[in-house]
Design a protein that fits this description.
This protein is mostly helical. The protein is built from 12 helices and no strands. The chain has helices at 14-18, 23-47, 57-77, 81-84, 88-103, 105-115, 126-156, 165-168, 170-177, 179-199, 205-237, 252-264. The longest helix is centred in the last third of the chain and has 33 residues, at 205-237.
């Protein structure tokens, strides 16, 4: 990343310029996150936890509880204008973690707990349940790595500069940039489905759909994470990816002035 220049990331300012990822918008999203995270924890605790034989489920739920509790506290804090207007970078970091805790972690846990469900889950022992868990996590990490590498290649080729094809046809090219990761995720999902089909005795198609949907949600969030982290990197690297205390986005010219003053000093 160190060899790239600010203009190589220009298109990524789009969500900031439109206001969709402004501090105010993120603050509102964090308020919604308070209720959604609490709801997802309640769903997992009251509807899934007691029907599974998944190993170390109590320890997992305790960790998930404290993670959710801490994030809810941070959501409350960073939804306050006085706070987020003075620490936009931290707010964005928290929004990334909260997004994962709403859209990735709970769905993955629901799927894993249902895979180990009593009287209807996979006919495997503790070691086999852990093995399928490691496989799913490994596939997710591989999706993240492949997507990140592809993302970096596009950045080096200038696809995220103003006036580039990425700028003109962003949505179309974004789907292409995620294609390698999508292939990895698709192959991994097929493997998981085959494993479940061969080793389970589910008599409810809805349960299978929930398991597959939860794993798919985890894979999708691994697609999204690289761009979120790159924008976070830009926020720490470039002033133009941040908002001032009045809520206005700094321009690229502000960054150039900052560089010029640094050189003159």
């Amino acid at each position: 990343m160190g060899r790239l220049r600010e203009e190589d990331f220009a298109v990524l300012r789009g969500p900031l310029e439109s206001g969709r990822q402004s501090p105010g918008s993120l603050g509102f999203a964090l308020i919604l996150g308070i209720f959604i995270q609490a709801l997802m924890f309640a769903l997992l605790y009251f509807m899934v936890k007691d029907v599974t034989t998944f190993p170390n489920k109590e320890e997992i739920m305790n960790f998930y509880f404290w993670l959710t509790a801490v994030l809810i506290g941070l959501c409350v804090l960073y939804s306050i204008p006085y706070v987020y207007n003075r620490s936009g970078r931290i707010q964005y970091l928290i929004s990334i973690i909260v997004t994962q805790n709403m859209s990735s972690i709970p769905f993955l846990l629901v799927s894993l707990f249902l895979i180990g469900m009593e009287n209807g889950g996979i006919n495997t022992n503790k070691d086999s349940l852990l093995q399928i868990t490691y496989i799913i996590l490994a596939i997710g990490i591989l999706i993240f790595i492949v997507t990140f590498i592809r993302f970096y290649i596009l950045l080096k080729k200038g696809h995220y500069r103003k006036g580039s094809k990425k700028d003109e046809q962003r949505s179309k090219l974004e789907s292409m940039s995620f294609l390698p990761g999508a292939i990895v995720g698709g192959i991994g999902l097929v493997f998981v489905i085959q494993y479940i089909s061969k080793n389970s005795n589910y008599d409810d198609s809805n349960t299978i759909a929930i398991i597959i949907g939860g794993i798919l949600a985890f894979f999708v969030m691994m697609f999204i994470l690289p761009e979120q982290l790159v924008i976070l990197y830009c926020k720490y690297k470039y002033k133009s990816f941040n908002f001032n205390e009045r809520g206005y986005l700094y321009s690229s010219e502000d960054q150039k002035v900052k560089r010029k003053r640094g050189i003159e000093a």
